[in-house]
Prior knowledge:
The protein is built from 18 helices and 15 strands. The chain is of the alpha/beta class. The longest helix is centred in the C-terminal third of the chain and has 24 residues, at about 390-415.
Amino acid sequence: MPGSDRDRTAPSASATIAATRLDPTASVPLHRQLFEALRQDILRGRLHPGRRLESSRRLAAHLGVSRNTVLEAFGQLTAEGYLVAVHGSGSFVSGALPTSPRPPATSAETSPPQAESASISLSGRRLSCLADAQRSTHLRPFQGGVAALDALPIALWRRVGARALADLELADLGYGDPRGFAPLRQALAELLWSARGVQCDPDQILVVAGAQQALDFAARVLLDPGDRVWVEDPGYLGTRAALEAAGALLSPLPLDGEGMVVEHGIAVAPNARLACVTPSPQYPLGTGRGVARRLELLAWARDAKAWILEDDYDSEFRYSGRPLPALKSLDESERVLYVGTFSKVLFPALRLGYLVVPRALVRAFTGARFCSGRQAPIGDQATVCRFLREGHLTRHLRRMRVLYQERQRWLVEAAAELGGRLDVAPSEAGMHLVGWLPDHVDDRSTAERATARGLRIEPISRFSLEHRVRPGLLLGYAAFDRPAIQAGVATLESVLEN
């Protein structure tokens, strides 16, 4: 208590900060340095609750600073509740603070120990495993899934963005519909109908932060822990990550030339709650999905009252004829959720995608969007909307199809010089090819050696759970010009020689 015998006999406050040195040359003001020093003394128990501090004059003299510096520090400590000012008696450490001192910080506090994992949820531990794999941002051959950033019409994008921002109303700047900017959802509904054969109302569309958020929403809204899910094997790792974080049990289904083998799924997990597919083309193998197989999958979902999640990640890039209609276009029973993204058609940092959900699920997914950031940035949504409305996206995709087909040809021609050590065949769609290795070659160790030589290559075996396929390497080509592709293949040749 202020004025207590213990307080009068305790060492002076100046003694408790005798080791403190205020640095007049530092960028932090002196009053702020003093505030932080006293705050730490209070938090660590060196100045206990009820303790009276030295007068501002004596403390200023002790530290060699002006009294105003001390008064400003005391004032901030009082405002934040660390000190209580008593008229005529001085300033005291607040009695409302806990009496047990906080232990000094250790190096372990800056790098959490492994034991800390026991204090987070199972979902959190699953998510922790993804952190290190996602840190690298440097673009190197042959990274997959990245658009041709060197061919992005950035000047046009900036002009369109400036006009889009200028046209926004004040009402657009408040809290908006969690589903997204209404004009953008209308434009997306029209685009999906004309380009993918998907007929939906704008109210069924949610604008999300890329395809990965759409996958996460689907896993959290549709699944309870322990629910079975069909996944392609090999298949997209981002889908598996979202499902496992939600506590789903994965049933890996093998692939044939038409895609996921539905008969196998019915045999091993007939009561699965969800099937996740990349039908146009399949990721990572690039195979298609014929109409018969699509109808078979839809019939299973209808009869089992299950859902299908269609990740239509790069169907815009087809080099012979029109893009195949989406699986969603055949969905008469309202069992398919459709995922699209602007990361592949524009640029990944935009972080905008969209999710089309059956009418019965609109309210649940709207709630999920509300709880996860509520809405995407209005400026980005308005810019994409105008980019669509003015026809720029259609023209950009037309140019990219020509460019990507050319870059694919460069990769196939360069790989043909490897003397059969890597079998790279052209594909009629997509942004990557698979380079198949001889059966006796370990694709994981090959990819590791390529990474050590400055490439970014994924082994096909990394995408498999149970059903192994021929060893191969995923080779993205869309983001790289001819010199980069040729240099990358030359580096890969030296890796394969060893």
